[in-house]
Specification:
- The protein has 15 helices and 13 strands.
- With 397 residues, it is an alpha/beta fold.
- It folds into 2 domains: 3-156 and 381-390, ATPase, nucleotide binding domain (Nucleotidyltransferase, domain 5, 2-Layer Sandwich); 196-373, ATPase, nucleotide binding domain (Nucleotidyltransferase, domain 5).
- A hairpin with a 2-residue loop joins strand 10 and strand 11 (221-225).
- Helix 1 packs across helix 3 and helix 11 packs across helix 13 (333-342).
């Protein structure tokens, strides 16, 4: 009989998962995959530890929410891992609010507290919590751990946390939380191995993907980040605008007579790279396009990235290294080149060959500030917290 742990990352239309199995004194990935198109055209794909596709099948249209997706996944796991024991499940939860500053074992009481944070992340929190609730009902004896995207940033100073509103509003939880914390925590944890000279220095990590943000690290700890009260602030993203004048939102209500739902859809689903280009929210498509609006969207993405790098460098009172991670950051040599060139005034000099190769170090030996590509692994970070909190640590996967 083999032991397993499971990591789940539930979104509005997808459920990503990763299965870790016992391998002697360690844990190792046995399979990973996702159920995507939930509620539209659901499909389940699974790859083994070698990255080979072992399952790819359309699912019934009745797979229309996180609960039915979890039940489908549970059925596949039972058939694929017959006789195995599930020792624990780790979950990505976007918002931990002001009180959850570390991974937490979930009870029904804790689940209720996390539900109360839904107004702070209305498009993410319900989907993150649905699998937890389903498993509490169906497998109450299997312990679950919630890992929060906000918790890595909880040590920020008061001036990096406060929003300049009256105290009675701030008492309702209005403050700068920051997100992508699981990714940043993973990068911080591996820098001593990947880039020891900068691991305890002043580092800006650029998590560039469909959702994008940056984090200023000092001695491996977050001191500031570009996202704020919501995951909409800061950098331009696939469908989110990043930082915009709040007066624009007032204008939309007052002069365009838009409803709250219409504004929400505009800001979360129709803006950013998609809104500027009118072509795509995918950076790969934009880079391949000859449409001038697509080029404008890419130019704006670079402009905002360089601007935020300058701001975070000021917060750090200097800079030792810039690290790229996530989908765009890890895979687009063109975007890395343009961001580094736009930040050359800081003393970063790109090694073009190393950049095309994908790093890990993509700056020249004479560069005053080094630049790196470090792949993130949020699933592994969640798994590590799950093993630690549940006393399941065997070794370092």
């Amino acid at each position: 009989m083999s032991d397993h742990t499971l990591v789940l990352n539930a979104g509005s239309s997808s459920l990503k998962f990763c299965v870790y199995g016992q391998a002697g004194a360690d844990w190792r990935v046995e399979s990973r995959g996702q159920i995507e198109g939930i509620g539209v055209s659901p499909r389940m794909t699974v790859k083994n530890e070698k990255g080979e596709r072992v399952h790819d099948a359309a699912l019934p249209a009745t797979i229309n929410d996180a609960r039915t997706a979890v039940e489908t996944l549970a059925g596949w796991l039972r058939s694929h891992y017959q006789g195995g024991r599930l020792l624990g499940v780790g979950h990505r939860v976007v918002h931990g609010g002001p009180n959850f500053d570390r991974p937490t074992k979930v009870t029904r009481e804790i689940l209720g507290q996390l539900r109360e944070l839904t107004p702070l992340a209305p498009l993410h929190q319900p989907h993150n919590l649905a699998p937890i609730e389903t498993l509490l009902e169906r497998m109450p004896d299997v312990p679950q751990v919630a890992c929060f995207d906000t918790s890595f940033h909880r040590g920020h100073s008061a001036v990096a946390t406060i929003v300049p509103l009256p105290k009675d509003f701030r008492a309702d939880g209005l403050e700068r939380y920051g997100f992508h914390g699981i990714s940043y925590e993973y990068i911080s944890s591996v820098l001593p191995e990947v880039a020891a000279p900068i691991a305890r220095g002043r580092v800006i990590v650029a998590h560039l993907g469909s959702g994008s943000s940056m984090c200023a690290l000092k001695d491996g700890k977050s001191v500031d980040t570009t996202m704020s009260f919501t995951a909409m602030d800061g950098l331009c993203m696939g469908t989110r605008p990043g930082a915009i004048d709040p007066g624009i939102v007032l204008y939309l209500f007052q002069n365009r007579q838009m409803t709250v739902k219409q504004v929400e859809d505009l800001l979360y689903k129709k803006s950013g790279l998609l809104g500027i280009s009118g072509v795509s929210n995918d950076m790969r498509n934009l880079l391949a396009s000859d449409d001038p609006n697509a080029r404008l969207a890419v130019d704006y993405f670079i402009f905002r990235a360089a601007k935020e790098i300058g701001a975070l460098a000021a917060v750090l009172a200097g800079l030792d290294a810039l690290v790229f991670t996530a989908g765009i950051g890890e895979n687009s040599a063109e975007i890395r080149r343009r961001v580094v060139e736009a930040s050359a005034w800081l003393g970063i000099e790109l090694d073009a060959t190393a950049n095309e190769r994908g790093g890990p170090c993509i700056s020249t030996a004479r560069s005053k500030i080094s630049a790196w590509v470090v792949p993130t692994n949020e699933e592994l970070m969640i798994a590590r917290h799950t093993w630690s909190l549940l006393g399941l640590e065997r070794g370092r996967a």
